[in-house]
Design brief:
This protein is α+β, with helices and mostly antiparallel strands. It contains 6 helices and 12 strands. Strand 1 and strand 2 form a beta hairpin. The chain starts with 8 loop residues before the first strand and ends in a 20-residue tail after the last strand. Bound molecules: zinc ion (4 copies).
């Protein structure tokens, strides 16, 4: 028997149930609470349009992912804004979208989502050209319908916050040491008490564990909350 890495789980924002990362796409297609939200939206005065289900995922780790339903008429500028707010923003770095990472031409942020994301499209978003965070955005579904919220983007599902244990006592950890990370490439996490006792401070104060793939990069310290 081979050991399998445990798949991250995430929460569906319509029904509040948790599913494995791989099962969430299937669940969202069948979630009865999501269907109810779609029916309720039909009765609103919002105009029907193309709606795109995008999964955004950290390009370097499988643990951070979100499922978004984005209005086709929305521009990439809004998608950029959303990714910054929920995951990335530390000090206002530049960002870019492209079809194939660094090698490919930049897609202008003025471009509409329905002009960029067709079935099976994969787009790379890069935030900060120095200490880069790379996010892969992939189309899963495209439907015609009335948007379920007044916002350009609806958060449908998100990975559960990362869990970590204090390396000293095994209790729940809320901090990690950047000096251990940069000097020894070690992801050392601590509870409040043992963080205080840990001697490293070469890279500034301890960093909180937050639900973002940018942890440990360029002093990112959260809050990793969606903008709406
Ligand atoms: Zn659900
Ligand atoms: Zn920064
Ligand atoms: Zn501890
Ligand atoms: Zn340390």
């Amino acid at each position: 028997m081979t050991a399998r890495k445990k798949q991250t789980r995430g929460t569906c924002y319509y029904c509040d149930n948790t599913y494995a990362k791989g099962g969430m796409i299937r669940h969202l297609r069948a979630c009865s609470e999501r269907e109810a939200a779609q029916v309720a939206a039909e009765a609103s005065d919002r105009t029907p349009e193309t709606l795109v289900h995008l999964r955004a995922e950290d390009a370097w780790g499988a643990d951070f992912w979100i499922d978004l339903e984005v209005r086709g008429s929305t521009t990439l500028k809004h998608v950029d804004h959303y990714l910054r707010r929920i995951w990335l923003e530390c000090c206002g770095h530049l960002s870019r979208f492209s079809l194939d990472g660094w090698g490919a031409d930049e897609i202008p942020k003025s471009r509409r989502v329905d002009q960029v994301f067709g079935p099976d499209t994969e787009v790379t978003h890069i935030y900060d050209f120095g200490t880069s965070s790379e996010t892969v955005l992939r189309t899963f579904d495209v439907r015609e319908g009335v948007p379920t919220t007044e916002h350009p983007i609806a958060l449908m599902a998100r990975n559960e916050p990362p869990e970590a244990e204090c390396i000293e006592c095994g209790e729940e950890a809320s901090w990690f040491c950047t000096e251990c990370l940069y000097e020894e490439n070690a992801w050392n996490t601590f509870c409040d008490e043992h963080m205080e006792a840990h001697p490293h401070d070469a890279y500034g104060p301890p960093m909180p564990i937050v639900n973002s793939p940018r942890m440990g990069m360029c002093g990112y310290d959260g809050p990793a909350e969606p903008p709406y």
